[in-house]
Predict the structure of Glucose-6-phosphate isomerase.
Amino acid sequence: MNSIKFDYSSVCNFVKKEEIGMLFPEAERALQSLKDGNCKGNDFLGWLDLPEQITVEELKDMEETARALRSRTEVVVVIGIGGSYLGARAVIEALAGSFHNFGKADMKIIFAGHNIGEDYYYELLNYLEDKEFGICVISKSGTTTEPAIAFRLLKEMLEKKVGRTEAGKRIVAITDAHKGALRTLADQEGYKSFIIPDNVGGRFSVLTPVGLLPIAIAGFDIRALVKGAVEMRKLCLEQEINPATEYAAARTALHRKGYNIELLADFNPKLHYIIEWWKQLFGESEGKDHKGIFPAGVDFTTDLHSMGQFIQQGPRMMMETVISVEKPHHRVDIPADDANLDKLNFLAGKRVDEVNKMAELGTRLAHVDGGVPNMLVTLPELTAEYIGQLFYFFELACGISGCMSGVNPFDQPGVEAYKNNMFALLEKPGYEEASKAIQKRLK
Amino acid sequence: MNSIKFDYSSVCNFVKKEEIGMLFPEAERALQSLKDGNCKGNDFLGWLDLPEQITVEELKDMEETARALRSRTEVVVVIGIGGSYLGARAVIEALAGSFHNFGKADMKIIFAGHNIGEDYYYELLNYLEDKEFGICVISKSGTTTEPAIAFRLLKEMLEKKVGRTEAGKRIVAITDAHKGALRTLADQEGYKSFIIPDNVGGRFSVLTPVGLLPIAIAGFDIRALVKGAVEMRKLCLEQEINPATEYAAARTALHRKGYNIELLADFNPKLHYIIEWWKQLFGESEGKDHKGIFPAGVDFTTDLHSMGQFIQQGPRMMMETVISVEKPHHRVDIPADDANLDKLNFLAGKRVDEVNKMAELGTRLAHVDGGVPNMLVTLPELTAEYIGQLFYFFELACGISGCMSGVNPFDQPGVEAYKNNMFALLEKPGYEEASKAIQKRLK
């Protein structure tokens, strides 16, 4: 099996090999506690076995639903936020053409419900005016403010446009199996629906219908994605020292040495949202009890010309993990030019990617020299299968890292804080006392 | 004059008012040294007076060039990286419709030369195949690798497609006044060209043709942008205590207390690239000599569901600055729903923006309560004029902050490190010794 690789050899300039070695038993214990289900937050460990548990029938059902929706529409608005947004977006942006939203394609995916921008919704409604559109709405409860607002607006518009019956055929819901507003509505209106398992948190849900259905609607291969996750699961769960324990041990060793920011870097703009997905995964899992490594993303070489200076010579508190893609899908050679005014003829005949690869290697060396420990994750190609491997690798490493730092990696109690204030300010029923208190405070 | 506002009152929960007060004289001295031109890096202070110095003739020239290019093309590819990319992109993304790249518009702007993605260029060339396109190429030297590769590829394609004469009319160059590859080529081929001043660094160049011309090509009001900068310049240079000294003093006080990450947050997705521009401005200016505040961006409420947990309860090392836009351009009301399954009827009849504003206020309160000092920048509306004010405000505050921390805010020596390695690895003529050394190291 060809697979993604993890290399932490450059870390050894910063942490002694023995220091990382000493963390392996700790990482292995953490992994064991995940496997045994006796870690903190163990009611949310469903993601561990997800790849194995998805059946061919479930995948087929999603593929057929996607096909049906595609046949009725030219645009599908995927409504979701956080874990109900980033996984699908990460895969779709990684696999779609860079200009897929500019040119012609048989399906456009638009995301909504992930912000409360009034102009965003005005422009979205306006854009959809003359389009045949459908909706894929993702919410466990159906009452999360951002997606609920978006769904109200778009459902109303769609029903006005095509009638309630046709709208019912163009709306797919991904929600709780039994309870909640969206479950009730889906059952009432006869929407096709899929289930968000109870034991999988949002940021670990990309391999449930939450991620898989939108990816299928966009036209990408969800079987390959799951296959990749199955492969990485096998690789990581069957041996104690594996890429996930290595990554967890290396970053934990660095963190304990005082490196408290981790940069995840790509050299391919299509990986931008995979990095955003990773930021949620690690940030939300580790950032609690005043602990955690601050997760930041950089797209290189773009950001070498913005954040590059800081990384090279700013405070020495950053570690860096580079995601490298070995083989591009297409070939572009750099042309020769007789005048050679730009002095680029030494590159003539080379592939663009050769330059990119030397930028990557040159950057890694420069950052290590400058005092930034470097780790490397290599994907053979940017395909659904390797992205599936990457997801499982990061999820498992995240669970292990969180256990090692002593937090519950599977809750997110801090996310309620802004919501509670917002509800109090908006005088939501049930928040009367909080409303009074916050109004008093603001005086 | 209506103008953007800066409020740092919430910082006083974390730093005593007197502690900030004690920094004002320092901030004022830094401002004075910028005005007197006796600070470090004083050969790059051109940005201070740029807004006043641009003449109506220069603006007209850019507007007419933009008009001519628009009349010949449907797509313009803007080639540039770093400071020759982010300023224009920030304004265009802030002022364009959220779906401008999806729907019909009389002009599309595509950015290139800011990465070395082989698939990106393959797909770009493919996309441009059947388009009437033009090129706006921005490079001081004309030899920076990323834009030089992009320009070689696109110039060759354009000349093949429409012939060298017509191509010459569709290419505009923004480059050095006298020297460099692009200047030579522009003069040879008779390209319309504009000048990058010698005394303005890339990240401070948005109010030169580097930023202004692409913005004009996209169809936005560059006079209003400059007007805004003129207003903020007047406001800040005519009084010692002004928004820029306040911001510089407040963030420096927090930094000296140990807050070493600054989050710039928006509640409007259109501001995303303004934050990217800010990250370069501050990161590249302050991140040197192992000093600096790590600049990170968050788009709320989107990222409240990813980075929110970390911000609320992670390590207490972050300060946060929120950019708030008071008034949206359009109106969308939240509809009522008889069934009210989503329990959103308490919001029925409210504008979407009212919810957004309460999310914003609720977030600021929650973050302060959680231990994240908060600062606030308010724009009355998201218009070119207020963005112009914002740019000058941030540029001046950045210059002051950099001087206060003792670095040269106007150089970026660390950016060369990866380039030197890359050239050595690619065996660029002149790098023979370095090539040998790096090959030896890699063995």
